[in-house]
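Table S5 (text form). Sequence records supplied for joint modeling of the three-component complex.
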Amino acid sequence: MKPIVYELIRKDWELNRVAVGAGIVLGILAIGITFFGGTVPAVIGVVCFYSVMGVLGSILPKNIYEERKNQTMAFIMSLPVSAIEYTIAKMISTIGIFLVFWLTLVGVAATMILTRKEIPNGLIPLMLVLSSLILLGFVLICSVGMVKENESWATATVILVNVSYSLGWYLLIRIPEIGRDAFHPKIVWNPILVTTLGVEFTLIAVLLGLTVFLQTRKRDFI
Amino acid sequence: MNSASPFAISQSDKRPIYLQIIGQVKRYIAVGDWVEGDPLPSIRQLAADLQVSVITVKRAYLELEREGVIVTHHGKGSQVAPKQDLAEELQEKELVQYLELAVRLALQLGIDEKELQRRLRETMERLEERERV
Amino acid sequence: MTELAIRMQGVCKAYPYFALQQVSLELPKGQVMGLIGPNGAGKSTSIRIMMGLVHQDSGDVEVLGNPMPAAQIATKWETGFASDDMRLYGAMTLEWHLDLMRRIYPTWDEPYAQQLLKRFGLLAEQRIKGISHGQRVKASLLLVLARRPKLLILDEPTTGLDPVARHEILREITSIVTDENRSVLFSSHNTLDIERICDQITFIDRGRIIDSLDKDTYMDRWRRLRLEIPSGASVPALPGVLGIRQTGRIAIVTVNAFQPELPGAYESSGARVQAVETMTLEEIFVANVEKSREEVEA
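The corresponding structure-token record, covering 653 residues in total, follows.
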């Protein structure tokens, strides 16, 4: 990786230090609530868990479209970096920061599910499918923000994505194979679950590729 | 020769900057501060010291060379021209300039030759008086 | 053949309400070029095209020998850019920005950076959002100057600065070209500064280059003649004249293509030439723009 790309990624991480720290702490607290108590705390915990991710998913893309809004775009593009390198650095840093949360929360949640006997391990595949949907939504917001560089477009996408989560989850859970083994004590994979995950990650890859491609065709950075 | 850059450009001086530079070089030679062979500051360094464009200093140096006041050797910079009586020559030129100016002003004021000569004598006596005291 | 730091040839760029048309200019190495023109003339657009921040629709652009925007990275390694509408990261300190520059650029001159910090009166520990406009401009310039770039492209570097700060910036700009391999291009409304420190002057208005010449040739072309016309007569039309203002028997003629024979030509046609004056860059600027406005209204 070229040094300049590394520096740009590092720059974004340094700019988001506070958000990263706060997000992790809150997320872990949310998971904690889920697993200490009865059904009500469990539901509250789950809702908080996905809310934290959702909030982060809405805040982080600001890194992308605010370069132009805050007029720092000229400063960055006057550095020895090309459009592609800038795009890649930006996507890596923004999605990377989100992934830190996402992996932390998913990891902690999975650990708790696996280590606590009263929680059926069958929940894990379902949790992964639903969490990956959030990741997909985030990547979509970032892609739109990157290509359009426009706060209105990004905000519209954020709203659209957030509203679609409920619909998405509802539709997914209605597929019998998705939720069938959720309360099974052991993890049960089936072709539909695997395919769903596969589709989600394929879409993520397609979005990233499309974003880089569209960026290379851009002619004006100010 | 003084090594510190004695040049100064005045913003209120209406004359073009290159003329001011030329004037100052001639002044230093005329009063004997700079003598033949003394090096002039490099064009670019002088431009930076005075915060003026290089093209302006170049023009001044070119003009000075044309008048035979300085010589420029490619790669070695410019020096005061090795002319015997350069100082006197410059002072002579200056005197001619002032005399012409005085005559022009006198004509504008309506002062005739006799009156001008009277004033000239008066001025010389006054200055001699000051020297004595 | 003089090497060129910047070469633009027939550059065009169209926007909904504005277009650069056939913009051509050349900056030889080791020189300072001043880009002047009214607001909205196309100075910033031209500068952004030089930096590859905006791609031209047509025309050649070469900066330090690199075709733009194709070889923009090579250009950006050796070119320092700062513009009036550029911002640094408000939440971070100046030291953070300095550190970023140190890590990216191998040509970074730390002693010089420290010197500039002192001279500009800046505190590295301060957050960018807490500093004044003038200090922010100086900070942006510092970040660019301490890299000792071969070419410096500045969009209105002294706008909004107090006289001391302006003086400091001009000092740094003129000291750059003591090295004949380094060059500077800057746009400014301060005609006094441009007149004083620029070797080349480019005048742009409404997206077109009006003139692009070395300063001496440019300024030598312009004169203001004060004429006394015999009563009842009008000023004879002679070539090279931009505009004439006549009140009664006195006429003021603005000339933008002065020839030494011109005063004589007026004398032979009956007018008495009272004075032949050179014009300051500001007066030339105003004359140019007024003329161009007249032409649009006509």
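Note: Residues 86-109 of chain B form the longest helix (24 residues).
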